Amino acid sequence: MKKIFLIAKRDFLATVGTKAFIIGLLILPAMIGIFALIGPRLFSPKNFQVKGEVIVIDPTGRVTQELKKNFDPAKIAARQKEEAGKALSSAPQQIRQLAGDSVNKNIANALGPIPDLHILERPAYLGIEEEKYWLNTQPKDMPHLAIIVVHKNAVEPTGKGLEYGAYDIYVSPKLDDRAGGEIHRGLRDAIIAARMQARSIDKTAMDAIFAFSNIQSVTVTPNNQRQTVQGFNVLLPAAFGILLLMGVMGGGGQLLSSMVEEKSSRVVEVLLSAVSPMEIMAGKLLGQLGVSLMGMGLYILMGIALLAGFALLGLLNFSLIFYLILFFLITYLVMGSLMMAIGAAVNDIKEAQGLMMPLTLVFMIPWILWMPISRDPSSVLSVAMSFIPPVNTFAMLLRMVSNAPPPLWQVWISIAIGIGSAVCAVWFAAKVLRIGLLMFGKAPNFATLIRWVRSA
Amino acid sequence: MNAAIELRKVTKTFGRTIAVDNFDLVIPQGGIYGFIGPNGAGKTTTIRLIMSILFPDSGDVSVLGCPSALEAKNRIGYLPEERGVYRKMRVGDFLNYIASLKGVSDSDLNKRISVLLKSVGLGGTERKKCEELSKGMLQKVQILAAIIHRPDLLILDEPFSGLDPVSTRLLRDLILEENRRGATILFSTHVMPQAEEICEHVIMVHQGRKVLDEKLSTIRSQYDPRIIEFNPLDPNADVSVLTNLTGVDRVDRDDSGCKVLLAEGVNPAEMMHRIIDSITPARLELSRPRLEDIFIRLVSAKTDSVEDRQKLRANLAQSSFGEASL
Asked: Does A13 touch chain B (CB under 8 A)?
C-alpha cells in the first residue's frame, strides 16, 4: 500500500507541479473572467447600426403610414428599452442592483445605436420587376435593404372568412440578419395596427389588454423562498455535466500520456523491478484522481462562492455535489483505466490515437444526449441511458439536477451498475498492463488487447 | 550454500517463438555469474522471468528463497537493458523515489545518495534534472538506482554498454564491492573480457537454451588453446619449416604474422620451445580461444549447414560477441 501511495504522490506532484497544469487549471476561470470583462466590448453592436432604405409598395395605402411610425428612432428606442427591462426583471436582484441607476445607459450600450431606416414609397401600379435592379445598386452611405410588397388583403380580409394577406419581401443578398429582423418586426406591428384601425379597435386599449408587467415568480425551497432565476435549471445541469466531463477527460488524458511517457522512456521496467503492474496502475489512478479532484474541488468552490455572491446558494441542493463526486469517481475509474490500458499497450502517443477513437466517441455521447435528457429527464431514452455504462453516470447526474429528479432506487441502481463497470474496466486494464508494459514493436489493435487479456 | 536464483524447467513463449526453452539454472548466494549470449538468445527474457516482470508458461522460479521475485523485490537490485529515468525529475529525487519504492526509509538516505553519486564522479548533481545529464552519466545514475537499497541480489542486464573505459572500470569496481558486501551478482553481457574480469561463472545461452554453465577456470582448461601466434625476428625467415614439426596441423601467414595451428592433444608449452628452437621469434604468444569459436563449437551440433554457421557468425559479429577471447 505504501508503494501505491509513493507512486500516487510522484504522479500527483509531477502533474500539479508543471506550468501546463497550473495554466490549464486557471485558464477556464480566467477565460470566463476575461470574457465577462472584455466580451461586451468585443461583441458590442456599437460598431454596427441597422441603416438603409426600404421600398414599400402598399396597395392598401394604410401599412406604410404605420411602418413610418414604427421606424421612428424614438419609438424603436422606447421598444428596445421596454424589452430589455423585461429581461432584466427576471435576473437576480443582485444583478439588477449592479445595473443600478445606470440601467438605461447599460441597456443602450448593450443594444447599440438606434436603427436608421428610411422608407421609399412606390405606387402600387408599379411592377416589382422594375424595382429589383435597385436592390443590387448599393450606395455606401445608405444601403438598399429590401423591397416590401404588401398584399392587397393585408389589412382587410377578402371573401367571407377572416383570411388576411401579409406581404412579400425582396432583400439584398448582403442584408444583415439584424436589419432583416428589424424590418419584419416593424412590418408586423404596422400591419396589425392598420388592421385594428380598419376595425376601429383602440390599439392603446388592446396593447394594455395584452401587456403583462411585474410578473413575480418565486421559487420555494424547503427552507426559504426567493425570486426565480430563469435559466438556473439549464445552467445547473450544464455546470455539473461540464465538471464531470472535464474531470474525467482531464484525468484520463493525463493517465494516458503519463503511461505512454513511462513506457517509451523505458522507466517502467525500473518500476516493475520494485512494484507489480497492479501497484503501478493503482498508484497512477490514485495520483491522477487527486489531481482531478483538486481541479474539480476548485471549480466547485468557485461556483459555490459565485452563487453565494448572488444570494442564490439556497437554490443548490448540496447532496448533488456528493453525487457529482461519486459519479465522477466511477466514470474516472472506468475511462481512466481504459485510457491507461491504451497508454500501456502503445509505443507512442501517435499509436494511441487509433485506439482512442472508440473512447473519444464515448466522450461525445454525453454532448449528444445533453439536450434530450435535460429537456425530458423522465423519457424512455433518459431512463435507459442512465443504466447503460459508461454514460449512465452522466445521464443520471443530468436527471438528478433537472427539475424532475429520478426516484432514489434508480440512482442507486445506476451507481451499482457504474461500480460494476468500473471493476470490469480496472480488471481489463490490469490484464493489458501486465503484458503491454513491456511490449514494444508493432502497434497493437483491439484484437491484440483482447488476446493479451486472455493470456495474462 | 543456498541458491539465490533457481530456475527449474522454465519455458516462456511469445506466440510461436520460444524465448526460453526448458531452462535450468542455479546461482548460489554470493556468486558472480555472467550471462552470455548473442542478441535474441533469451538473456533478457530469462532475467525478466527471474524478476517476475514476465511469468513462465511452465517451470518454477525461486529467487532468494521465495517462489517469486515479487515477494523479494526489496532485496533485489535490477538494471534493465533498456535504461529509463524520469527526464524532468531531479537526480537526487529519482534515486530517493526508487529507494523508497524498494522499501528504504532511512533518514540518512539523502546522505547516502550524495556519497554514492560522488563515488561515481557525479558529486553535486543531486539538484540537476535527469535530462541535463549525458547518456553515460545517466547510466551511472541508473546503476546507483539498482544498488541504492543495498540488495542481496543484483541483476544487471548489459551494465557496461555505452560506458567509456574509465566508467567501465568504475562500474566493475562497484560490482565487485557489492559482491564483497555479500550480494549475489548476475549480469548479462556480450563482451567477454568484462565477464572474464568480473565473473567466476559463465552461463552461455543460445536460442533460449543453455549451452554452457561452467566456472570460468573450467572453461579455460576445457577449451585449451590450440593456436600459437608467432612473428620471426628475421622477417624473411622461412616459416614453412614449422609445418614439418610433429603436432603442427597448419601454418597460416598474413601481414600481422603467423598462426601455428596445433593438432589435438599437443602440449602448447612444449610446442613453443620447439618453435623457438627452429626459428628465433620476435613475438611468440599463445592465442586464447575466442568466445566466438567456443560458442560456434558448442552450438555446431545444431547448426548443420555452412550457411547456418555463417549466419551465426554474422549475428555474433553484429553483437560484438565474438571479438573477445578467453
From this structure: no
* Partner residues linked to B290 by β-bridges: B325
The candidate with the shortest Cα–Cα distance to B139, out of B159, B157, B154, B114, is B159
Q: Could you tell me which residues come within 8 angstroms of residue A398 by beta carbon, excluding any fewer than 6 positions away?
A: A237, A240, A241, A369, A370, A373, A374, A377, A382
User: CA angle, A427 as apex, A423 and A432 as ends, to 5°?
Assistant: 150
The position carrying cell 517463438 is B17
Q: For residue B154, which amino acid is it?
A: L
**Most B CBs within 10 Å, among A264, A267, A455, to test the B interface:** A267
Residue B159: closest CA among B133, B185, B184: B185
CA A405/CA B111 separation, integer angstroms: 60
**How are beta strands B184-189 and B153-157 bridged, if at all?**
parallel
Q: Does A439 touch chain B (CB under 8 A)?
A: no
Residue B325 confidence class, pLDDT cut points 50, 70, 90: very low
What tens digit of pLDDT does each residue of A273-332 get?
888 888 888 999 999 899 888 888 888 888 888 777 776 676 677 788 888 889 889 989
Q: Is A455 on the interface with B (CB under 8 A)?
A: no
Identify the band that residue B14 occupies on the pLDDT scale cut at 50, 70 and 90: confident
How many Å separate Cα A262 from the centre of its chain?
37
Taking the Cβ of residue B86 and every Cβ of chain A, the question of whether any pair is shorter than 8 Å is answered with: yes
H helix or E strand, kind and range, residue B33: strand B32-36
Strand partners, B155: B78, B186
Kindly tell me if the per-residue pLDDT of B322 is higher than 60. no
Query: How far, CA to CA in Å, does A46 sit from each of A253, A314, A330?
Result: 42, 38, 49
Residue B8, strand partner residues: B60
- In whole angstroms, give the CA distance from residue A34 to residue B267: 92
A77: helix, coil or strand? helix
Q: What is the number of other CB atoms lying within 10 angstroms of the CB of residue B161?
A: 15
C-alpha cell of residue A423: 471493476
Distance from CA of A277 to the nearest CA of B (A): 9
Contact B89/A14, CB-based, under 8 Å? Answer: yes
Measured between CA atoms, how close is B248 to chain A, in angstroms? 52
- Distance between CA B155 and CA B48 in Å, rounded? 10
Is A3 within 8 Å of chain B by CB?
A: yes
Q: Which amino acid is at A345?
A: A
DSSP state, residue B152? S
Contact B150, B76 (CB under 8 A): no
| Rounded-to-integer distance, Cα B178 and Cα B152, Å | 9
Q: In degrees, to the nearest 5, what angle opens at C-alpha A429 toward C-alphas B19 and B100?
A: 80
Per 3-state DSSP, what percentage of chain A is helix, strand, and coil (rounded to 5)? Answer: 70, 5, 25
DSSP state of B284: E
Give the Cα separation of A274 and A298 in Å (integer): 35
Q: Which amino acid is at A344?
A: A
**Domains of chain B with bracketed CATH:** 3-217 (3.40.50.300), 224-287 (3.30.70.100)
Give the CA-trace dihedral at A353, A356, A362, A367, to 10 degrees: -30
The answer to whether B268 and B209 are in contact (CB under 8 A) is: no
pLDDT tens digits along A352-392: 888 888 888 888 888 888 888 888 888 899 899 889 888 88
pLDDT of residue B323: 43
- The answer to whether residue A96 neighbours chain B at the CB level (below 8 Å) is no
CA–CA separation, B219 vs B302, rounded Å?
21
Give residue B300's identity as a one-letter amino acid code: S
DSSP helix, strand, coil percent of chain B (3-state; round to 5): 40, 30, 35
Q: How far is A275 from chain B (nearest CA, A)?
A: 7
C-alpha grid cell, residue B229: 601466434
